[in-house]
Amino acid sequence: MRAVVYEGPRRVSVKEVPDARVERPTDVLVRITSTNICGSDLHMYEGRTDFEPGRWFGHENMGQVVEVGAGVEKVRVGDYVVLPFNIACGFCKNCERGLTNYCLTAQPDPAMAGAAYGFADMGPYAGGQAELLRVPWGDFNCLRLGEDAEERQSDYVMLSDIFPTGYHATEMAGVQPGDQTVIYGAGPVGLMAALSATIRGAGKVMVVDRHPDRLRLAESLGAIAIDDSAVDPVEAVLEQTMGLGADNGCECVGYQAHEPDGREQAASTMNRLVASVRFTGRIGCVGVFVPQDPGASDELARQGKLAFDYGAFWFKGQTVGSGQAPVKRYNRRLRDLVAAGKATPSFLVSHELSLEQAPEAYEHFDARDDGWTKVVLHPTTAGA
Amino acid sequence: MRAVVYEGPRRVSVKEVPDARVERPTDVLVRITSTNICGSDLHMYEGRTDFEPGRWFGHENMGQVVEVGAGVEKVRVGDYVVLPFNIACGFCKNCERGLTNYCLTAQPDPAMAGAAYGFADMGPYAGGQAELLRVPWGDFNCLRLGEDAEERQSDYVMLSDIFPTGYHATEMAGVQPGDQTVIYGAGPVGLMAALSATIRGAGKVMVVDRHPDRLRLAESLGAIAIDDSAVDPVEAVLEQTMGLGADNGCECVGYQAHEPDGREQAASTMNRLVASVRFTGRIGCVGVFVPQDPGASDELARQGKLAFDYGAFWFKGQTVGSGQAPVKRYNRRLRDLVAAGKATPSFLVSHELSLEQAPEAYEHFDARDDGWTKVVLHPTTAGA
Amino acid sequence: MRAVVYEGPRRVSVKEVPDARVERPTDVLVRITSTNICGSDLHMYEGRTDFEPGRWFGHENMGQVVEVGAGVEKVRVGDYVVLPFNIACGFCKNCERGLTNYCLTAQPDPAMAGAAYGFADMGPYAGGQAELLRVPWGDFNCLRLGEDAEERQSDYVMLSDIFPTGYHATEMAGVQPGDQTVIYGAGPVGLMAALSATIRGAGKVMVVDRHPDRLRLAESLGAIAIDDSAVDPVEAVLEQTMGLGADNGCECVGYQAHEPDGREQAASTMNRLVASVRFTGRIGCVGVFVPQDPGASDELARQGKLAFDYGAFWFKGQTVGSGQAPVKRYNRRLRDLVAAGKATPSFLVSHELSLEQAPEAYEHFDARDDGWTKVVLHPTTAGA
Amino acid sequence: MRAVVYEGPRRVSVKEVPDARVERPTDVLVRITSTNICGSDLHMYEGRTDFEPGRWFGHENMGQVVEVGAGVEKVRVGDYVVLPFNIACGFCKNCERGLTNYCLTAQPDPAMAGAAYGFADMGPYAGGQAELLRVPWGDFNCLRLGEDAEERQSDYVMLSDIFPTGYHATEMAGVQPGDQTVIYGAGPVGLMAALSATIRGAGKVMVVDRHPDRLRLAESLGAIAIDDSAVDPVEAVLEQTMGLGADNGCECVGYQAHEPDGREQAASTMNRLVASVRFTGRIGCVGVFVPQDPGASDELARQGKLAFDYGAFWFKGQTVGSGQAPVKRYNRRLRDLVAAGKATPSFLVSHELSLEQAPEAYEHFDARDDGWTKVVLHPTTAGA
């Protein structure tokens, strides 16, 4: 089969690799019809992780089932399914409580937790930027889609990661009807957080970023766009909230946060959130932070530490929740909203390309070229 | 009336001051029969805050009602009452949701929230280390006690702060029956957190400290004492939990954390908690941290920042809740446990003294003299 | 002042009565600018309760503050305020946990809980269908409105009862984004429940009733209208939900439920809900049921009992929550949604009348005359 | 293998039946070392259900794994495991939210939900009152035990049903530290509810029953025993709670409730709970109720209806949760409490017998013979 193989820093190529196949009785084999390029893929693409050359990326996947193992009972050949990026067994201490983001079985390192397709340090699993994908514990991990699956792929594929991830930020932040919510970051995840806050009935959603195309997309959702290259975002939020601060906030940027002048400043969004959110407010942080970052420019960052305004955080009695999203906790209800026409997450897709066009897409996306908001690759055609 | 007046760094004296009195129709006037010295009093006593000389401390108070304003309906003269250290109006946006720790009315500074008796930056309210105390919004702030109030004062007075504060740590940490819980700090609050975890049905409670008297008290509750001057506490916790880490953790130390060798290291307990608590675990932080600390030895601490292992925290998908406890959310149910004989928080009281002995008590307590675990002052005798 | 005085079954007249006034230091006096007639008023109007002739109705009230007691600190003369129908002290065991619907102080009967303005068995408080209203514990009970209060009265007055009551039904039912929710009853409360379910992100809202005007209003919210005079509503819901039943349901009818043929059948909506809602689903019941109903036609109903399908309920593992809404728990966030233009509850107002027109309005509303969906009375003009 | 085969009303015999075996790759085969007789077994034993002669009972099972299917990854041959009585797939809409009590896959009837071993209408699964048991979806359904499993079987086997079921009652009732909790029924489940309430920190636990041996066991837990053959239990509870009623309550009796004079009165415990629990209180109902009961003496009961005091229930704003317990939600944490020596549910075991003694045990248990509180059968010996 063909796959987008990682060759080394900033080099991928589309190549022939061994076919994915059913290896265990509980596996499901999926022909991938849509697979996204994610911001997390760029960390690996840029060589900032220990992702091994020769493997391939792709953790935002959907497609059609072509084979099932002998122990599979729910999923049938021919079903359209979307796969959570987290691979989870369904029966460990974490999975049984819904914490599929930290599965203890799928992750081979006993000191760690959590697994994903085509991801550094998240287990040996192949990615979905390929024609076929092996899905372990298929009955648990496959979310089946309805009759409109094929034609609405660019909506449904978002259930694999960014839509549930954005939603998870609002869940950890405790967004409720009438709330004033601030979101730092208007990349794909930040925009999904803004969409999620709206779905949950927020009274006012404020989105902080500096890319005009992203801010426009935020405004298209009815959010208030705050351009932090033009104004102090903390002051802008306070002004919008009678000086009290937002009821809750979402971090959708991560450790590669930059100042408008280009300096990387991992602590800046969290510290601004502490300042932007009211006393007793909650913060949900889904932007990626890492336990160590050997290539970072300052010593704290190298050790995975932030110079965090913990005193202010404590003084205000805030709460922060963190980490990767347990996609499976939300994907069913978000699917139902998509199916009912009440959510259209595809609004941020800028490019739909073939697998062969992936190398070019990585180049543009990595360069943050204007207009490259979100790329969906179509390795195969449904029913092909 | 007599009060323990602050004269300047490490100087208090017992003096005549103007009588507290009913000032507003919703006030209640209480004759103080028990009032504790708290670790927070020491911050002010040592001159590390801007607490004004001439004022007096005391935010852990109980006593007997001697007068009520014209707008008071529930509380009656003669009632024994215990007062939450937080002064709260009961009707602002925060109080109406139970966030009495961050009352917007009682705190005069509109950029802040929360108030307390005899406390730096927490409003102009007089303390209770005196013969009389004015209690604003008396019907809301007074918790009435039963017939055993007088004889069990050293239990009931703990409802004013440390028992609910320790309980709040376990609430934010989400301690549930069967959990393995680690508590950093075996001072009065940490011991109350250990008691609270036990009440909530924890399967294993581990308490980290280095003072032998405190560790003995922890063991008397059935907890496992970990002496961090003898062993690496993170390793000890991992060993107790099959290498997975505790289910949840409580921070009961605060920014004045010290290494065993005596260096102040504000970040150490939080970072150890991140390392001691399992993936997806929750941490409740009631140890005090401050937005700035001008007298601190390093630059980060001066700005109220911690070099926080945020990367590890995020990677493990943990949650941390913080801040002062909303005492009123818990004091009624904890009172009922005391009344039923199912909790005896007085077990940590080391000294019961008269108001006149307060200066000497401050000296010993500030010096962390062995055996000075918790001091209760009795400014007046009930019915006097 | 003028008030709509109850004279006996189906007789009210507008008369001069003694002015409402500040009686206690915590009272606020409000000049009523909008006050609704509620379905509950009709129970009293029809003489089915022991409401005393000479008193006056009115528990859905808003207006402008004209005087405050000496113990009032937040509310100011001139403020526009809307009042929860429940009168609550703010400091009893129930109020402090947000259960203002069951205040133990405002209700004089120690065997009961909860109080309201102008309501049978809910304390001695005068109603708001008058020029002036005394509001006990004014700082706790008044929700202040913004600058658009005067011109958007018919929206804001709904915060006094039916909007929070409908919302409470969806809260008890646990409506979450993507859910399929069924609501029995499309009267004012049922329509507000449908609006609330939509705000909370429900994927599909189904509303059961038989009055064409009400069903049209439900459809205007995007809900699916089910006419139970034309189809079996249980079957209609099962058909809409792939045979599984709705995720959750709301009872907005109460004990005066009628069959399409006109027979009163108190148990019918609850039993249909049990059949319409899926295994493990939750039901929120805000329709009024009474502990005894001396005028009822059958023996069970006279004793306040239902022939409830408890076996089916248990077998399906359902949960039902019940009772009057704690308006204060929701009115602030719903106010913010109205202010933000994200909710317009006035859509169901059919008539805006003067106080003098009240007797005529009662007649039409009691007769369920077509088009009399909701009546707002304006006893005074703002600033008059 | 040998099994306790149902022959018809009140007739069981121990016979040779075909060996249980691994049928699907996800199955686990367990040699049963302990299996309890449950009150639910008696419903079937008495012939009040459509349980087919020739099948065998046993849904409270533990034992040692003797074989695993090719798709099983966690469970190993030799592991001691305890099995939740509910058989659940782990991946349906209900299981993924933890509602394993209503699994949609294991139950073959699409109009129903939930499955169990050896149980009428709960699927075709064989029971565990036999030498061997086939466990479907073994990785999901087996809870592994530690090294003390063999010697503490009579504690651990309670994790299969009654301990989690009693705990579920307290969870639905929302029992929190300091609460006053009333439990109707001191059979095995009621006693486990009392134990659970104690673990959760209840301040006062009241247990209503009339059998002296059961009331004594309740008292041994520190609960207050209320003998409803001697006093009016509602009045007794009100007296214990200052006339306000218990904070929450548990129904652990079910539809076969009897008056002290012997009449079956299905509605009596629920109606007494409504009267015994305070305004706004929650009730958890785990006693079994059935959608129809053809053999009942009155018409309502035949239809599975109760003459429920719904008016009083609504008037008090109570909530009731119902149904079988999702054992898997609780069994891990309860196991940890047993392992830590903080819970000893075996205290109620009255008889430990061999499989061959089962017929005699059924006879005595069905006759409610004095002292036959709980029977554990040991079909095989560990390691045999």
Unreliable sequence segments of chain A:
none
Distance from first to last alpha carbon of chain A = 14 Å
Q: Which two protein chains have the largest interface (Cβ within 8 Å of the partner's Cβ), and how many residues from each?
A: A-B, 46 and 46 residues
- Order of SSEs of chain A: EEEHEEEHEHHEHEHEHEHEHEHEHEHE
Q: Main beta sheet of chain A: strand number and arrangement?
A: 7 strands, mixed
Q: Helix fraction of chain A?
A: 25-40%
What is the subunit arrangement here? Answer: homotetramer
The radius of gyration computed from the alpha-carbon positions of chain A, rounded to a whole number of angstroms, is 20 Å
Would you give an account of this structure?
- Four copies of one chain form a homotetramer.
- Chain A has 384 residues and is of the alpha/beta class.
- Chain A contains twelve helices and 16 strands.
- In chain A, strands 3, 4, 5, 6, 7, 15 and 16 form a seven-stranded mixed sheet that branches. A six-stranded parallel sheet of chain A has the order 10-9-8-11-12-14, with helices on both faces. In chain A, strands 1-2 form a two-stranded antiparallel sheet.
- Chain A is globular, with a radius of gyration of 20 Å.
- Chain A starts with a strand and ends in a 6-residue tail after the last strand.
- The model of chain A has no long low-confidence stretch (mean pLDDT 95).
- Chains in contact: A-B, A-C, A-D, B-C, B-D, C-D.
- Chain B binds chain C through residues 24-26, 69-71, 73-74, 89-93, 96-98, 105, 139-140, 328, 332, and chain C through 24-26, 69-71, 73-74, 89-93, 96-98, 105, 139-140, 328, 332.
- Strand 14 (319-322) of chain C pairs antiparallel with strand 14 of chain D, so a sheet runs across the interface.
